[in-house]
Amino acid sequence: MLTPLPKLSYGQWLGAAILSLLLLSAWLVPLLGHHQPNVQHLQHSFAPISTALPLGSDQFGRDMLARLAAAVRLSFGLSLLCVTSSALIGVAAGVIAAWGGRRLDALINFIANTVMALPGLVLVLLIAGIAPGSFAMLYLGISLTLWVEYFRVVRASVQPLLQGPELQSSLMLGFSRWYLFRRHIWPAIASNVLTLAAFGAATSVLMMASTGFVYAGLKPPTAELGLMIVELFPYFSEASWVLLQPLCVLLLMVLGFNLLAGQKA
């Protein structure tokens, strides 16, 4: 039987509230008529805030509210995919390495060390550069970077558990390894894995934005936070309030995930 999730601290509740508001807003905005993030109206370039354009428009007259909502949905989607994939791979690799004997442990540890030999962002840029503008390559690059953290934490946590009397007793009684994982291992590593998942989501959002800064990630006119920021930089002096919008959203997303990963109550 799985243990219940740990209670959240005030900081974690604040992080969850920030992320929930961002996600809810991102899905409600299209229902309010702001569902065309890429449609240009050059005659309305840098239009001020109005009823029709609650957050104004960018240099091409595109609805900033629609673009920010689309960018938030994209960032959440990518972070969810990357965190899920990397957590599954990292947890499985960590348990297998700890449980599979020295040779298997040495092999997986060597692969992890090889991945870590390159800075994470450089690895993402290299993989994203194979097919510029590809969401799949961006997802693959970030996931390959993140799984190592899960592997190291899980491997270090599982190794002492395997020699514990509770697990050894269950093993002698003939229970399957899947049962042993659910009964003895997962309850011990769940808290750390969930914390890593929150940090991993923040890292995914930042990496995606970073690739947008150097035009190595998704391509225009995709509404992506990093790409929006770098496109608006040349207009900082005449429309700094427009540039601040994707910056603030990026800050709130990363802050929300980091708060969510904080210490439990």
TrEMBL record:
It is found in: Cell membrane. Keywords: Cell membrane, Membrane, Transmembrane, Transmembrane helix, Transport. SUPFAM superfamilies: MetI-like. The chain crosses the membrane at residues 12-33, 74-100, 193-218, 238-261. The keyword Transmembrane applies. It is a multi-pass membrane protein. Its main location: membrane. Residues 72-261 form the ABC transmembrane type-1 domain. Signal peptide: none annotated. It comes from the Bacteria. Belongs to the binding-protein-dependent transport system permease family. This is ABC transporter permease. It comes from Shewanella dokdonensis.
